[in-house]
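FIELD: query
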Amino acid sequence: NQATLDTLGFEEKELVGKPFTALVSEASPKQDLMFTGSVRHIEAIYKDRQGNDVPVFFSCSVVRDSEGELESIVTIAQDISERKRAERELMASEQRFRAIFASSAIGMAHLGTSLQLSHSNRALRKMLAYREGELNGLSLDRLLSEEDFTVHRPSLEELLDEKRESVQFECRFRRGDG
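FIELD: result
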């Protein structure tokens, strides 16, 4: 169809009569399954006119004649180049965030909605005298002094209820070594 021609940069006369495999990249992991009956919802790699890889979300079905011989293949493919680019950018952004979080000289932790720590950085663990993994799952009320937790709990709850975008306060922590 025209969308395929536009995506891959071919003219119709260049593809008519050519085997479907002429479009599929050698890098496509599921190429051998395409002729067994049907393939549903896989990612495949097409080749454009210049030989560049074009990632697609792909489904196909084999059409057989009355003797069971392969007659044609009906395919549906959606160009997912933009989605793949966005995924790569997101992955790079997450890696940058993780690196900043891990290497920061400021103690940091990620809290879940129940105010339990799911991740902490080295600076926080060192400051509070905990080893890696020991803070995970601990509730903030066990880490803050009882008085400070009581005072700051309302603002933390407002943060969780999305009534505030951030909170900032001074507090006293309970260290792991007492």
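FIELD: remark
The CA atoms of residues 38 and 61 lie 4 Å apart.
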